[in-house]
Design goal:
The protein is α/β, with parallel strands linked by helices. The chain has 9 helices and 7 strands, in the order αααβαβαββαβαααββ. A 7-stranded mixed sheet has the order 3-2-1-4-5-7-6, with helices on both faces.
Length: about 230
């Protein structure tokens, strides 16, 4: 997806400030909007993400950009031990989970080296200031043999599905956001897909950071992607 002519997406420190402010603002109704705009498919996407971790009971999993705790609750239900990290105080304040939560930057995690068995992250890759340092930070905190499973939006390869998806994501989602939450935020989110590198480039970034068996799994006809890998 390209940015409309004449529009500029924020970069660097400006992007970090904008992202934090935006998520602080939409936190109170974030879960409601997610359920409505995905027709509850987001629930199944998270469950698939956790299955792809393939970690044993009791494994410690860092959930990055944890938001209101959806992933943390699912991880707990599957006898895993989550720790949530989010950049937004507003999101953490609205969280509904018993898991420990930490305010922090995903590019500089407050976590010791090789201290977690896995990492999950839901729909946040396009919101980070840089991706290669993020993947390197994952490699630092995940133990050898540990797993990552990163969920993000995608565009279907099928041209008909892609056209429909672009219309829905670019036109309908902002209307839903305006009615239920913050219109400006949900106009920005579809445009933020432009931050994502090509799939091949992103997989290569993950491999360079120190992961093997890196795969991209397409879900729901290709509107969502799941990036998985094992720490070398």
């Amino acid at each position: 997806m390209t940015v409309p002519k004449g529009e500029r997406l924020p970069q660097g420190a400006e992007k970090a400030r904008a992202v934090r402010s935006m998520f602080d603002a939409i936190a109170p109704r974030y879960d409601l909007v997610n359920r409505v705009m995905t027709f509850r498919m987001d629930v199944g996407w998270r469950r698939r993400t956790i299955r792809e971790l393939s970690l044993p009971r009791g494994a410690r999993v860092l959930d990055l950009a944890c938001g209101t705790g959806d992933f943390c609750r699912e991880l707990t239900q599957r006898d895993l031990v989550p720790i949530g990290v989010d950049f937004s105080w507003g999101m953490l304040a609205a969280a509904r989970t018993d898991a420990p939560l930490v305010q922090g930057d995903a590019l500089c995690l407050p976590v010791p080296n090789r201290s977690v068995d896995g990492v999950t992250c839901g729909f946040a890759l396009r919101n980070f200031v840089e991706l290669q340092p993020f993947f390197s930070e994952l490699a630092r905190v995940v133990r050898p043999g540990g797993r990552i499973a990163l969920l993000e939006v995608a565009e279907p390869a099928n041209p008909i599905l892609r056209t429909g998806h672009r219309a829905y994501f670019g036109k309908v989602v902002p209307v839903i956001g305006k009615l239920l939450s913050d219109g400006a935020a949900y106009r920005y989110l579809p445009k933020s897909v432009a931050y994502l590198p090509t799939p091949d480039s992103m997989l290569r970034m993950v491999e360079v950071a120190g992961f093997r068996d890196v795969r991209r799994i397409l879900l729901s006809g290709g509107i969502t992607q799941l990036i998985v890998g094992t720490r070398i």
